[in-house]
Input
Amino acid sequence: MKKHLNAIVFLLLVLIVGFLAWNHSRHMAQLLNELTAGNAQQRSSAAAELISGQQFSDVVSGEKHGIRVQAAVALRDLGNADAVTHTLPLLKDEQKLVRDEALKTLEAIGAKSQANLTALIAGLTDGDINVRKGTMLVFTQVPGGIGPLSNPDVVSALVGAVKSTADSSPDAHGPVGDILSSSLFDPAANSRSVPLLVALLNNSDDAVKEGAADVLGKIGDPAAAPPLIALMHSPNVSPAVRRVVIGAIALIASPECQPSLIEALGNPEDASDARAQAAAGLGRLATAPAVTALSRALTDDNLSIRMAASGGLARAARAGEESPVNLAVTNQLLGYLSSGSPLVKLGVVEALEDVRASQADADLSKIVLAGNADPELKIHAIRALGFAGNTAGVQALVAVLNTSAGEDAKEAGISLAKIGAPAVPQLVSLLASGGVPAYYAAIALGTQAQDATTGATALQALKSAAAGTNTTVQRWSAVALGETGLSSVRPVLQQMIKSPDATVKFVAQQQLDKLPGASMG
Output
């Protein structure tokens, strides 16, 4: 009898557990249905219950992406700090639709209250980079980003995160700097953010000082320069803080920053990366004293400093890809080509590669044509002549092809290709020379012809040369046509295969086989 009673009790327990599991499963299914298909109130209530039971992520994560999208909507309906916390992981979802809906939710509720804002800022130090990037977008996206709201005070909260996470990994100062320097915040919020950050420069924690200095550098407001300069020269400043402060001063690069940047660049006791940043800052200033300091650094014992100094000189002479050449700086640089040491000359010519200044053509051509030029200096001078439309550089580069071999000839061909249409007549004439000049001329013409915007001149010239009677020119024209990789040259090469000259015929077939779609049989 006792055995039967135990069995009955056990069976009842199994039934009760099964019923509870079934009831729980049914309730979870009901909550999921309300979460994704209910009205706003139902969605909000379902989200709240799932969050309170610590089941939201488990219920949603395994569902189809459409349900995860609706989950983000439900969290928007809920709208509290818990909703913010549970939306953040959706920023790393594999589906873009889910990520986009999560962004919308966070933009809508992320600054709805101080508690929400605190929860949102936690995303800036999340262990997943996608969550960190997504959180930054919530603040900065145009249109839709939260921006520098005053109630709650977004700027103060962000600056507070620099202090509170200074010893964390990852910390918040990188993302906060990117946010406060974005178009929604800078310059609109600088009058609020800069004083708060400057105050942190006096914090007893070096990590806080470093974070504040880094953010101030990204913002780039000249109002931050004096306190940063003062901290740089403080007798109690640590090397680590000084390093970050120098970088910040270099990013601001206002006139009062110049003496400190010159000091840092020339100080071998400062960290190499800080000195390199100082070089970049001096390049932004582009004054005569800045250029002088950069030219001195071209003889530094540290190669990375020499490279940074050359880069700074290039920026000083041309601030950006579309910026005009700074003639005053360029003329100062050209002066060093006649009076500087070998290292200074090399650094200046390396800088001129990025400047693309026709004003330097005469001096660069002298180096290229000099029989006793340093080989490395000559290579860089050849490269510096190679920029679009630089007609005045063609003659010296062609001379290199006619008189040199190896690396010099190769670089001259590359530079002539970069010059474009003005170099085409001379390159075509070199095809008749045969040998090294013809080879690099053919490569240059083939490279030019690949350019969809500017290659028509070279392509037409090659077709005309291929149709001529000079078999040497025809052979090298075929090489150039093959180099283009264009299927449109196939008919020209097919015609050349009919040539009575066996060499022309062979080369044309060889190049035809290189073209896209060529038969492998």
